[in-house]
Amino acid sequence: xxxxxxxxxxxxxxxxxxxxxxxxxxxxxxxxxxxxxxxxxxxxxxxxxxxxxxxxxxxxxxxxxxxxxxxxxxxxxxxxxxxxxxxxxxxxxxxxxxxxxxxxxxxxxxxxxxxxxxxxxxxxxxxxxxxxxxxxxxxxxxxxxxxxxxxxxxxxxxxxxxxxxxxxxxxxxxxxxxxxxxxxxxxxxxxxxxxxxxxxxxxxxxxxxxxxxxxxxxxxxxxxxxxxxxxxxxxxxxxxxxxxxxxxxxxxxxxxxxxxxxxxxxxxxxxxxxxxx
Length: 277
Fold this sequence. Notes:
Keywords: Hydrolase, Magnesium, Metal-binding. InterPro entries: Inositol_monoP_metal-BS (IPR020583), Inositol_monophosphatase-like (IPR000760). This is Inositol monophosphatase. The structure is a single chain. This protein is of the alpha+beta class. It is built from 8 helices and 14 strands.
């Protein structure tokens, strides 16, 4: 790591500089295009529910430039870069510090003109998340986390919590396989209240805020999970895969997995999900 990072991973100066960069890029490239997209600004990637916009591409390009300048020697794994070249994912297994970037998490919601989208950034080194930034500009929410230093929402410490029925954000129905539907049926049969998620970053933020009890997800794209995994962990949450191991940002996880308000809740969710392999 460079001089910009201290012995704990990330210095206060770098934490603040990244927040400023994220705010600036989102203000320039994302917010002006919200509810103002032309047809030519929207493209389909792998299918009708997998969209990319000019805002996604321009924000990732700008963030790539600014983040690597803030931390010389670092590299970027961004959703759109991986879409163009899957080999970019291999950077997560290297020795260089890696910025994991989702320029617009919740692109479909963004295209529909809804406010449920966010920009996600995480700094990862040798598979370990060091810091994260979650920004929902229309909702006016900015959350940060620093390994071993806690999680904050607009400067206020975050802690997980909750009681009553188990409340979970779950995978979007349009992407579910029959086995995944069966696993979620088991959760609901056990009394869980499951709500489909269209923005993973905001789902993780709800867990960190104690507004919901956890997530039950079936995919491992690192740009969707890296920022939220650290944010929730620093707020007190636990992650577990279906094999009982913590979720690994670099991949190779047994799916599905959960991130839940505490270890006991995570084990309960995994026990119910265990039939989906």
